[in-house]
Amino acid sequence: FGKQPWWKDALFYQVYPASFKDSNGDGWGDLPGLISKIDYLEELGVDVVWVSPIFESPQKDMGYDVSDYQKIYAPYGTVEDVDTLLEECHKRGMKVILDLVVNHTSVEHEWFKESRSSKDNPKRDWYIWKPARYDHNGKKRHPPTNWRGYFAGPTWTWDEQTQEYYLHLYAPDQPDLNWDNAECREAIYEKTMRFWLDRGVDGFRIDTVNKYSKRTDFVDAPITDHTSPHQPAPEMWCNGPRIHEFIHEMNRNILAPYNAVSVGELSLTPHPHQVIPYVSAQAQELDMVFEFSVIRLGNGNGFGAKYIYDPFPLSTLKRLTAKWQSFIEGTDAWATAFCENHDNGRAVSRFGDASTPELWSRSAKTIALWQATMTGTLFLYQGQEIGMTNMPPSWGVEEYKDIESSNFYAEAVQSGDGERVRKTIDGLRILARDHARIPFQWSDEPNAGFSDAGAKPWMRVHDDYVAINAAKQRHDPDSILSFYKHVLKLRKRYKDVFVFGAHKLLDPDDEEVWAYVKESPCPVNGRDGMPRKALVMMNFSRSERDVGDIANALGCKEGDVHLLVGTADSLDSDRTTASKGGPWPGLA
Ligand code: TEU
């Protein structure tokens, strides 16, 4: 299957730096702390470390509000610490990508300070300014449109000094850059990307990559939420008229010359037809994208109800994944395999059952097998490999620090609707971004070994850190961490099947066992040069299911497949099943 770029079968690992490792006891994770854990990442089999934003920032949105792209937020360390991180990773054959946040800056960024200083400032047009609208009697001032942003508020904020509104899809502290301005785009390429590529960074995870081109008619969105003055309007700014021109320009000007790897965050983009133009080889735009159909499962419909949890049957997951897989097979385009990140609840709490230690362990291993056998480039999120779980339901809302959580909660309280408040709290307990941001659980030492014993971590350490931590699992052959290492090796060893293989979902109506066949795209030296196949079976239920029965029911006769993997008996036995015949050794 020919020469593939290095990143297609690489293992990426997302580090949320504030919560990974604190080296100086200030309760906030930092770069020296991350550097002290590179051996841990290497041992897991990580090829590429993705570091969420570490730049100078007022931290209104945990660094996704950058005030200086060439400085490091002091509690994380210094630019020289980044040089050390690069050096330490590169000497181990590992790479580093940074989080590129260029849909917006912080209000504290010099560019915005100039832009807001006067209407005729040369950088005025680097942001999106619009005059107010007034009632017919000219009394009441209104924003240019009725759009609702991602953090439960309007997308416009009035600026007294120049008497205009500016656009922000996220917090008022995150004004949107105007990508329609060529000078602004040039500055983004030169001042945020080239600076880090020249220092040796290997590429970028590109934040909100489909939002840079907005519709320029700025019209009101239809009223769909009668409880709010602001209406969801992602169609006004997702996949806009010039988006492919901009991303292609970014590719030609900066990504390609540096051979930088790129993965774009592409939410709310109908796939496959609207995703392919971002990632097809001939597009010369991005290498990969994150497609969110699967990870969004359970989110309430639309912006207004995001945190009104919408329970889903497993079959939804399977149907979505089948569709997702078909889009990958349909082209040489590449999506990514992932089930966690810093914007979502923990997978074992959402897609598994963490209610008892036994079920928690089996669930986490089943999820590990799911991820390790998925087609595409695999991304893990810190803590997923040891089965870190959502915050305990007993914790109060004060433990939810994230702007998105607190804004949705405040909006529910302001609505005066007790039922909505209750549902929002229930939704946050499953879906909140905060669950992924509590300190990494390294050991059973105080503060879970994340920070010094006397320190007060910026977020509360999980109550279960004594039972769930990396040190406890590292040498335990039955641990989740050991299982991840096991199935990650399986993925690498049979990458033609698991990374590059076609995916055939077997029984979309079975609500308990999720089974699919993966087939290598090319004849290998297996039996008679036939493509290699694997039957993957995962029992997401508590009932006993027999491997043989399933295989037969699925029409997979013995010898049909060369590798049988799965936690198919039930969540109560994580035995992985040896292969049945075929040229391959069973799962060791
Ligand atoms: O998220 C982009 C985005 O679409 C968010 O709405 C995200 O999907 C949502 O919060 C999920 O609950 C990126 C970053 O990943 C996120 O952390 C930032 O808050 C956001 O952009 C603004 O930079």
TrEMBL record:
Domain Glycosyl hydrolase family 13 catalytic: residue ranges: 14-429
One example of a Gene Ontology biological process annotation: sucrose catabolic process
Alphabetical list of Pfam families matching this protein: Alpha-amylase
Substrates-to-products reaction catalysed: Hydrolysis of terminal, non-reducing (1->4)-linked alpha-D-glucose residues with release of alpha-D-glucose
Segments forming a coiled coil: none
Keyword Thylakoid included in the entry's annotation: no
SMART domains: Aamy
Gene Ontology molecular functions: alpha-1,4-glucosidase activity; alpha-amylase activity; glucan 1,4-alpha-maltotriohydrolase activity; oligo-1,6-glucosidase activity; sucrose alpha-glucosidase activity
Keyword Mitochondrion applies: no
SUPFAM superfamilies cross-referenced by the UniProt entry: (Trans)glycosidases (SSF51445)
Keyword tags: Glycosidase, Hydrolase, Maltose metabolism
Family matches, as InterPro entries: GH, GH13_cat_dom, Glyco_hydro_b, O16G_dom_2
UniProt superkingdom: Eukaryota
Entry's transmembrane regions: none
Family from the record: Belongs to the glycosyl hydrolase 13 family.
Protein's recorded name: Alpha-glucosidase
